[in-house]
Structure formats: C-alpha cells, structure tokens
Amino acid sequence: MFRLSCIFQTFADPVRPPKGLTPKKPLKTKDHKNDVLRVDSGYLADQLTLYEYHLYSKITPRECLTYVNTQSGHEVHNLVTFCSTYDKLGGWVKMSILNQDQITKRANTIDHWIKVAERCRANFNFSSMSSIISALSSVVITRLHLTWAHVGRKSQLDALLKHNEPTGGFAGYRNLLSNVDSAVPCVPFITMYLTDLIRTREQFRDEPDRISFIQLQRWHETISLLLKFQHRPPQHIYDEYITAFIQTQLRDAINSADNSWFWAKSQDVQHIELRNADFRNGLEQAGF
C-alpha cells in the first residue's frame, strides 16, 4: 500500500476533456450506407481522433500501475478499453478490404485508409495511425499482389511504416512523441510504455523488507509520459453521425487477434485474383 500511495500522490487527477461540441450546422457528409469509401477520409480521421482521445483521457495512473500485475479486470477497465480499440480498428480495416468483391474497390479501400492514416498522423493521433498501418501491412493484406498493383499511395504508406517498427523498443514512435509539445492535442501509441512498466518490475524487484525506489522512480517517469497528453483535447468539430458509424464498425469488427477468419478470407480473395489473372492472360494470348 505504501508503494502505491507514493506514486499516486505525485499525480494530479487527469483532466477530463469536454464533450465534443455539436456543430450549429451538420457537416456536409453523404449517407455512408455502411461503406467506408463514402465517408470523407479527413472527417473519418478527425472523428477517430476525438473518439480515441475520449477513451485515452479516462485512463488513470492507478490503472497503469495495476496493469503491471494484471492485464484484465475491472481495475484496468479504461486502459483495456483503449487498448482493445487498437485491435478492433485493425480488424475493421482488414474486413473492409477483404469484403470488397472487385479488385479496384479493394485498391481504393486501401488508398482510402492510407489517407485516413496520414490525417491521423497530422492530428497526432498515433494510436489510430499505428492500428491502420499495421493492418495494411499484415500478411493477409500484403499477399494480395494484384490488388496492390492498383494502389496509388503505396509510397505514402511506406513513409508511415517507418514509425511503426518495433525494433529498438519502438524507437520510431518514441522519437515522434518526444518531438510533440505537451500542449498539443495528441493520442499516443502506448504499447511501448506498458512494456516499459512490466520490464521495470522485472529489472528492479523489491527485496524482503526493502523497497526499490529506482522501480518507483521509473514507474513514475513512464506513467507520466503515457498520460502527459490527457489535458489537451482535440479541437475538431464533433459529428454524431460519423461517430455512430465508427462505433458500429468497431463493435461489429472481427477481432484482429482472431487470424483464422482473416487468413481464410484472404486465401479466397487471392485465389479469385489469380483465376481472373489467368483468364485475362488466356484471352490476351487468344487475341482478344
């Protein structure tokens, strides 16, 4: 109890962001009809940023420290909810591509998500950006070579992926976040910080009748970095219509961790692409 209270006393209660302001006039968006391609990429990224920030702002220092010993349960509910959105968004991205029947629509969907990721990068929403580009670079999507031949923004995706390398303890993300002023609205990618918390426990364990103050200091430093952007909410105009669409898609998305569905669907799409390619080659050789 002493160990926990020492850390909690060094934190102020996180500031809760105000709810998004309803615009006086609705944003000029067309009916999405549950099709992500019908939602402007900029609007989608902005609403994702507001949605993710709302979840991020609820995380408490106590939850971060409790996470060290347990990664589930009511005591870490807000933290787990925020982290689970990462997998749900990745699942939505992959499903939206694999469920397209036409090769051009699959390519257009990939291009659309790259635009969303770029806008998230501009919004300093590194959580959504990471989820999107991780999904786009997953094997179940990259193996669709004929689809990728029609993608026009591959170079932009490659530029974003440089931030997403897990090597060097996510050095790319650490560098990004270190250059973001704490007064700027930001939704950080927090996986590396959670990993740091667990590693600190392993490296600086308490001994009988002796508290590791190095452990306490490291935990305080890490949690401070993890939560440092909670006080400055994004200034985008809240759009209830698009936010409801996002919530529905995240709710219905297959969990990205369940690779069985994605792998089977990806195989089916790849086989269809190859059959169509062979058919076109046959027609060309026959002079059509």
What is the CA-atom radius of gyration, in angstroms?
22 Å
- Helix count, per DSSP? 14
Largest sheet: none
Tally of DSSP β-strands: 0
Structural class: mainly alpha
User: In angstroms, what separates the terminal alpha carbons?
Assistant: 79 Å
* Outline: globular
Order of helices and strands: HHHHHHHHHHHHHH
* Parts with pLDDT < 50 across at least 5 consecutive residues: 4-26, 282-288
**What fraction strand?**
under 5%
Could you give a short description of this structure?
With about 290 residues, the chain is mostly helical. The chain has helices spanning about 1-10, 40-55, 60-65, 75-100, 105-120, 125-135, 140, 145-150, 155-160, 165-180, 190-205, 215-225, 240-250, 260-285.
Topology:
Elements: H1 2-8, H2 41-56, H3 61-67, H4 77-98, H5 103-122, H6 126-136, H7 139-142, H8 145-148, H9 154-161, H10 167-178, H11 191-203, H12 213-227, H13 240-252, H14 259-285
Domain Ras-GEF: 40-266
Protein name: Ras-GEF domain-containing protein
InterPro entries: Ras-like_GEF, Ras_GEF_dom_sf, RASGEF_cat_dom, RASGEF_cat_dom_sf
